[in-house]
Amino acid sequence: MAIRPKKRKFTVYLDPEVEKALSDFAARRDRSQSMIAEAAIASFLSPDDAERREAVVARRLDQIDRRLARVERDVGISVETMAVFIRFWLATTPALPEPAAKAARSKVSERYEAFIAALGRRLAQGPKLRQEVSDDVQGTDQAGGA
Fold it and tell me: Does the reported pTM lie above 0.85?
């Protein structure tokens, strides 16, 4: 059985906040501050730990990349949906004569509130538009001239 060398005293300077956190952590774990500091330093210097941390960071970055790709897709669908709707609405809705325009303006708040209520129901119940739009659809609007 090999004899371990005696531990040596080592003095470090800590920020008051770090010292307080170390003290609190040691008290919660019922361990000495020296033992916790030693374990933390050993973990920091361990090459296996560095590789494990790197793998964790890489996985998290991959998750963020996938989420960002979904957000980018959803925003693209939203923008295209709005553009198609506006183009369709402008092409099919004639301008109102002035007496009818005044009547329509008086109903704006009521119609807007109905729109917001319908949108709220749609968002609450689903399915979401992004779930209805397939990623596999390619070039269908080029042939139709939308």
Answer: no
pLDDT tens track for 72-81: 998 988 898 8
Residue in the block written with tokens 């956190």: 21
Q: Are 33 and 22 in contact (CB under 8 A)?
A: yes
**Token pair for residue 27?**
């008290």
pLDDT for residue 1: 62
Phi, psi angles (nearest 5°) of residue 93: -105, 110
Tokens (6 digits) for 126: 């689903």
CA distance 123 to 127: 8
Please provide the DSSP assignment of the chain as one string. -PPPPPP--------HHHHHHHHHHHHHHT--HHHHHHHHHHHHH-HHHHHHHHHHHHHHHHHHHHHHHHHHHHHHHHHHHHHHHHHHHHHH-PPPPHHHHHHHHHTHHHHHHHHHHHHHHHHHH---HHHHS-TT--SHHHHHT-
- CA angle (97 as vertex; 93, 103 as ends), nearest 5: 90
